[in-house]
Design brief:
single chain; alpha/beta; Immunoglobulin-like; four-stranded mixed β-sheet
C-alpha cells in the first residue's frame, strides 16, 4: 500500500513539472534580456531618463499594481506619476523576479514565491523595462511621467 502511495505521489509531481514546462514553452518569445542580481524588497531610485519606449502591443495602463500570473506580467506596460510606488504580486504557481533592464537602477526583487509581493518607488521620469530573471521571456515596462 505504501509503494502505491509513493508511486502516485511521484506521478503527480512529475506531471505537474511537465505541465509547468509545457506552459512555459508555450509562452516563450524571443528576448535579448541580460540577467541582473536581485536585491531588497523595497528600493528608491534616481536613474537617468532613458527616453526609450517599449514596443509592447498592450496599451499602457494608469494602475500601480502588476499581477504575475501564467508566466506573464499583467498589465505588461503601465504609466505612473513620478513618486508612485508600483507593487507586483506573484499569483503564479512558481517563483518569479522583477528585475530591472537597461542598467537604470530600476526594480530588483529577490525571488517572489507564489503569493508574495514586491514594491518599488519610481522617483525619476522615463521608461523603465524589467523582466523575470528566472523566465527571461517575461517582460514589462513602467513609464514614469512628471
Amino acid at each position: 500500500m505504501k509503494k502505491i502511495v509513493i508511486i502516485i505521489a511521484a506521478i503527480v509531481i512529475l506531471g505537474g513539472g511537465v505541465y509547468a514546462l509545457a506552459k512555459h514553452n508555450d509562452n516563450k518569445t524571443t528576448s535579448s534580456n541580460t540577467p541582473a542580481t536581485a536585491s531588497s524588497d523595497t528600493m528608491n531610485m534616481s536613474p537617468q531618463n532613458s527616453g526609450s519606449t517599449d514596443s509592447q502591443t498592450t496599451a499602457p495602463s494608469s494602475t500601480n499594481t502588476v499581477t504575475i500570473q501564467d508566466f506573464a506580467f499583467s498589465p505588461s506596460s503601465i504609466t505612473v506619476k513620478k513618486g508612485t510606488t508600483v507593487t507586483w504580486t506573484n499569483k503564479d504557481s512558481t517563483a518569479h523576479t522583477v528585475t530591472e533592464n537597461d542598467s537604470q537602477n530600476g526594480p530588483n526583487s529577490n525571488e517572489l514565491a507564489p503569493g508574495q509581493s514586491y514594491s518599488f518607488t519610481y522617483n525619476a521620469s522615463g521608461t523603465f523595462k524589467y523582466y523575470c530573471s528566472i523566465h527571461t521571456d517575461m517582460t514589462g515596462s513602467v513609464t514614469v511621467t512628471d
